[in-house]
Amino acid sequence: MKLIDQYLEQIEKEIKQSTFTAKTEEIGFVEELRDGVVMATGLDNVSFGEIVEFQNGVKGYVIDLMEDIVGIIVLGDYLGIQSGEQVRALGITLSVPVSDAILGRVVDALCQPLDNGNSISPEKMYPVETIAPTVVFRKSVTVPLQTGIKAIDALIPIGRGQRELIIGDRGTGKSTLALDTIINQKSENVICIYCGIGQKNSKMALVSDLLRKQGAMAYSVIVSASASDPVSMQYLAPYSATAIAEYFMDKGKDVLIIYDDLSKHAWAYRQISLILRRPAGREAYPGDIFYLHSRLLERSCRLSDSKGGGSITALPIVETLEGDVSAYIPTNIISITDGQIFLETDLFNAGIRPAINVGLSVSRVGGNAQTKGMKQVAGRLKLDLAQYREMAAFSQFESDLDEETKKLLNRGAKVTQLLKQEKNKPYTLAQQLVVLWSAYKGYLDTLSPEDVTVFEKKILESLKIKGMDIVKSLTKEKAISEEVEKKMVKFIVAIAEIKK
Amino acid sequence: MKINPQLKEELKKHLDNEIQKSKEKIIIFSSYVMGQNEIDALLGCFPKLKQCSVDNIVDTSIIGGIIIQYGSKIIDLSIKSALHTFQKKLYEIN
Q1: Is residue A2 very low, low, confident or very high in pLDDT (cuts 50, 70, 90)?
Q2: For residue B47, what are the domain limits?
Q3: Predicted ipTM of the assembly
Q4: Among residues A364, A380, A389, A411, which one is catalytic?
């Protein structure tokens, strides 16, 4: 708590600094007020994306320039604005204050705090809308981003600087997947940004609570434009979240950003566009709905070393209806991103969680970024699972199967069982490698499906006690050398014997 | 019904002229009626505005000082706006 004298001193200092000068300002008058959108006359020399201020201090964002009228979206409460009111152009484009102090905070789309803390003292102002880095400033994706989820790290690997879509029906664990990834970045030196768009406030509270409990808030920022916030804020939230990410990327850091979710973002933009009377296209979305998301996701990249070598990895989330990935917005975003993780209701209900459909999920660039050790075990697993899916479909009608097919079915069932994972319990690379290696070598083939889970737990437990040297060398080398493999054989056999 | 294109052209020209004229007009808001010599002295400070016709509107709510408006631009030198910026500064200090 500061003393009143200190406050007065600071006020005095501030006022002494300011000088009174005559400056020309651009003004206009409110002509029309529609839901969250103001049409104003005047403002002859205003530019697109400029910030304007209404008389009650509420800011607006110029989004439409017509012959004699200007369309402005109101960033805040639009109910206090009256027609005929004066609008002042501030001559600045929309930017957000950023500094390292933003870590651990919950902010809105304009970086104003939502957690009762002090306002963020700006080190720099970052523009909300920027052009994505050009080709020469980019580097290919080579460093893996560990999600801590076995199924993803093994089969659909994600690299730093990649954009991987998480897509699925409501209640299939899309957000959980994203949050687990944030939790796993604890020792990975990755800054995480969770951007909630049109989410329930209760959900945002749960998210910040979870991250705080897991100790993930120290390296995370939550940007929230909830369902009750004006649509203008929902529209801007992902762009300002990316601006925060760019601040850290420009410092050479690796950033993970999660947009939860972009279908609601598309709705928000559709609402604004319809109120602005822009021509509506398919499903009443405006013509630039593709550009809306492509310009956002293009900003995620890996910078070349001359630019500091930072990266932004984007995990946008899109909700489908009844698993329909061929709807308008999902297909748009699938084509922009470098792959997708497809979550299915049927799998979720069958108890396979995370409910990833391994067949439909792909990662187009992550393969190059996968660690050597993971490549050693995952290649075979992928093949096993693919064959299993094919066999499982038609073996239902056959009663007597040949030995080879039986073996395949058995292996597939065990691997599927092994890829199940509890939520909020990410695995380290070493843990994943040991567990997946045991399946790859066939140590699980003789177990019943229930025993697979028990066996896995045993492995994890004894890894902590007896397997420290295995963990150490796996984490260091990120590959399974012959020497470590010998140790692992001994280790797994010991566990299997206890079991008997 | 057909409209004579020449008529249309002329109407457009006339409207353009009107807009041009209104742009050249200056409105000075002050808290009291200003004398001609005061206005002349004031415009002396703004060489760009010398050739324009001037309207003086009395608005007591600005407390003191003046606001000059031309086209869609204003130069705000009123006490009201100075107080307003002062108020904003106070809120920003934390």
Answers
A1: low
A2: 23-92
A3: 0.79
A4: A364
